[in-house]
Write a structure and sequence with these properties.
single chain; alpha/beta; Alpha-D-Glucose-1,6-Bisphosphate, Chain A, domain 3; 4 domains; six-stranded mixed beta sheet; 17 helices; 21 strands
C-alpha cells in the first residue's frame, strides 16, 4: 500500500468513526503524516495495513483508532456481523468488565443489535466473564457477548462470543465454523454510519448475579468451613462476586488485598494483571502471611481463572490444582458415564486419575471452547481444566458454567482445603498423597514474547524440520505434530516431544492464541519410592535442566 493509499484509507475511516476520542487521535496522526512525519506514517501503516481477525477467541487487541485496534467502529462492525449471522429476532446477552472502554463497547454492541431487530439484555454493571456465560444458558438466549481482554495488559481490550440455545453446549465459547461464518458477515458490513441503531435494550437487575450465585453455591461443597483465606481480585471485577459467593456458601470472609480489590483498568500494582506472572501474587502472599491464612487465592481481572497458593509453600501450578480438583469432583459425583478432560499442553496426571477411578478421559486442543465440549454422547461432563489456571467444575446436577470459572473453582478449592484441614493436612499434603499414588508429575512453562510473529513461525518451522535429539538428559523418543490433526483433534500449530531416560517426560510447544508469545510446556513424571520430598527435589532439578534446554532450543 502506497502512502497515498494509506492516507485515503485513514481518512475514510475517520469519516465513519462516531467516537470523538478516536477521531481526535486519528485526526492528529493524519495531520502529522500529511506533513511527512515518518513515525506517524509508520503508526498509520500498523493500524491500517490489516485488521484484527475475528476467530474462535473473538477479538483482542490494543485500544486505538483503525481496523487493527479495538475501538467503537471495530466493535460495531463485529456486532453487526453477529446480528446478521444470528438471523432475525434473536435474544443476545451482553456482559463487560471494567477495562478502559468496556462499558462503551457493550453499549455500542447493544445499539447495533437492537437496531438490527434483536432483543438484548445487558448485565447490570462490570461483572466476571463466568456470570455472562451462565446467563446465556440461564436465560435461554441465542448468543452472548463478553467485552473483556481477560489478563492482557491494560492497553488492550477484547470481545468474546458465546453460543446459546438449550443444548449441553449452551453458554460455551464459539468454535469453528461459527467463527468463519461471523467473520464473513463482519466483512460484508458497510460503513457503521449507515447501521440502524436502537435504544430499547434491557439492563438486567441483580437477580442475574443472584441466580449465578445460587447455582455455584449449589455445587457439592461438603460441610467443612473452618478455613482462613486471603484473596486478591487483581484490580478486576471478581472481588465482590467472590466475597458474596464465599459468604453464601458459609465460608469465613477472606482477608482481601485492599490495594487490588477495586476494579482499576490501569492495573497499577502489577506489571501484567495475570496471577501466573512473576510478582503478580506478591501482595496476596504478604496478605496471607499477615492474616495467618491457610490459603491464598486470586482471580485474574475477569475472574474466569483462579490462582492458589499455600503459605510457606508457595504458588501451586494450574496442573497441581487441576489434579486436586479432579479427585475432589470425582469423590463427590458418581457414575461410570462421567468424563473429565484437559488440554494437550496440560499435565498427563488427569489421565492417570481417570483410569484409576474408572471414568472417561478426553484430551482436547487448548481453550475452553474445546474443553467445555469434551465427551461423547451419553457421557456426563463433570470436570475439565487447563494448566493456565482455568477450571470448570460440576456435580451430579451438572455444570453451572460451560466455561472456565474462577469463582466456582475458588469455592471448591476452599471446600477441599477445609476438609484437609480437619484431617490435619494442607493442600501440599494432598499433593504428596497424589504423588505416591500416581507418580510425581512436575511441570513448568516458558513464554517467549516477541514483537514480530514471524519469529514464532520460523522457530516452529525449524523444530519441525530438525527436531532435537534430546532435551537436557532426556532423549526425544518421538514427536507428535498436531498441525495435520491427530485422532479426532482438529489441526493446530503445536508440537509435542515425548521424552525418555531416567524418568518420563514431554515438551509441548505452541504459539499463544491471544498474545504474541511462543509457549513451551514441560513435564516430568517420577515414580515415588520412599520420601516424596527427596523425589520432588530430584524432579525439580531435572525440570530446571529441561527448562534451560528448551529455552536454548526455542531461542529464548
Amino acid at each position: 500500500m502506497t502512502d497515498a493509499e494509506l492516507l485515503t484509507r485513514a481518512r475514510d475511516w475517520l469519516d465513519q468513526d462516531p467516537d470523538p476520542d478516536t477521531r481526535a487521535e486519528l485526526a492528529g496522526l493524519l495531520a502529522l503524516a500529511e506533513d511527512g512525519g515518518e513515525d506517524a506514517l509508520a503508526d498509520l501503516a500498523d493500524r491500517f495495513a490489516g485488521g484484527l481477525e475475528f476467530g474462535t477467541a473473538g477479538l483482542r487487541g490494543a485500544l486505538g483508532a483503525g481496523p487493527n485496534r479495538m475501538n467503537r467502529v471495530v466493535v460495531m462492525r463485529a456486532a453487526a456481523g453477529i446480528a446478521a449471522w444470528l438471523g432475525g429476532g434473536r435474544h443476545v446477552v451482553i456482559g463487560y468488565d471494567a477495562r478502559h472502554r468496556s462499558a462503551d463497547f457493550a453499549a455500542a454492541s447493544a445499539a447495533v443489535l437492537t437496531g438490527a431487530g434483536h432483543r438484548v439484555s445487558v448485565l447490570p454493571g462490570p461483572l466476571p466473564t463466568p456470570v455472562l456465560a451462565f446467563a446465556v444458558r440461564d436465560l435461554g438466549a441465542d448468543a452472548g457477548i463478553m467485552v473483556t481482554a481477560s489478563h492482557n495488559p491494560p492497553q488492550d481490550n477484547g470481545y468474546k462470543v458465546y453460543v446459546g440455545g438449550s443444548g449441553p453446549d449452551a453458554g460455551a465459547q464459539i468454535v469453528s465454523p461459527i467463527d468463519t461464518e461471523i467473520a464473513a458477515a463482519i466483512d460484508a458490513v458497510g460503513p457503521v454510519g449507515s447501521l440502524p441503531l436502537g435504544e430499547d435494550w434491557t439492563v438486567l437487575g441483580e437477580e442475574a448475579v443472584e441466580r449465578y450465585l445460587a447455582a455455584v453455591t449449589a455445587l457439592p461443597l461438603g460441610s467443612d468451613r473452618d478455613l482462613s483465606t486471603a484473596y486478591t481480585a487483581m484490580h478486576g471485577v471478581g472481588g465482590r462476586v467472590l466475597l458474596r459467593a464465599m459468604e453464601r456458601a458459609g465460608f469465613p470472609r477472606p482477608a482481601v488485598v485492599a490495594a487490588q480489590f477495586e476494579p482499576d483498568p490501569d492495573f497499577p500494582t502489577v506489571e501484567f494483571p495475570n496471577p501466573e506472572e512473576p510478582g503478580a501474587m506478591d501482595m496476596a502472599a504478604a496478605e496471607g502471611e499477615a492474616a495467618g491464612a491457610d490459603l491464598v487465592i486470586a482471580n485474574d481481572p475477569d475472574a474466569d481463572r483462579l490462582a492458589v497458593a499455600v503459605p510457606g509453600y508457595g504458588l501451586l501450578t494450574g496442573n497441581e490444582v487441576g489434579g486436586l480438583l479432579a479427585e475432589y469432583v470425582l469423590d463427590h459425583t458418581s457414575g461410570p458415564e462421567r468424563v473429565v478432560a484437559t488440554s494437550i499442553v496440560s499435565s498427563s496426571l488427569l489421565a492417570r486419575i481417570a483410569a484409576d477411578r474408572g471414568v472417561h478421559y478426553e484430551e482436547t486442543l487448548t481453550g475452553f471452547k474445546w474443553l467445555a465440549r469434551a465427551g461423547a454422547p451419553g457421557q456426563r461432563r463433570v470436570f475439565c481444566f487447563e494448566e493456565a489456571l482455568g477450571y470448570c467444575v460440576g456435580g451430579d446436577g451438572g455444570r453451572p458454567v460451560a466455561d472456565k470459572d474462577g469463582i466456582s473453582a475458588a469455592l471448591v478449592v476452599a471446600a477441599l482445603a477445609a476438609g484437609a484441614k480437619r484431617e490435619g493436612m494442607t493442600l501440599v499434603d494432598l499433593l504428596d498423597a497424589q504423588a505416591r499414588r500416581y507418580g510425581l508429575h512436575l511441570s513448568d512453562q516458558l513464554s517467549v514474547r516477541v514483537d514480530d510473529l514471524s519469529v514464532i513461525a520460523a522457530a516452529m518451522g525449524r523444530l519441525r524440520a530438525e527436531p532435537p535429539a534430546a532435551f537436557g538428559p532426556l532423549k526425544v523418543a518421538g514427536v507428535d505434530d498436531f498441525a495435520g490433526g491427530r485422532g479426532d483433534l482438529p489441526p493446530t500449530d503445536a508440537l509435542r516431544f515425548r521424552l525418555e531416560g531416567s524418568v518420563r517426560g514431554r515438551v509441548t510447544l505452541r504459539p499463544s492464541g491471544t498474545e504474541p508469545k511462543l509457549k513451551a510446556y514441560v513435564e516430568v513424571v517420577l515414580d515415588v519410592d520412599g520420601d516424596v520430598g527427596a523425589t520432588r527435589a530430584r524432579g525439580s532439578e531435572l525440570l530446571s535442566e529441561l527448562m534451560a534446554s528448551v529455552a536454548g532450543a526455542v531461542g529464548a
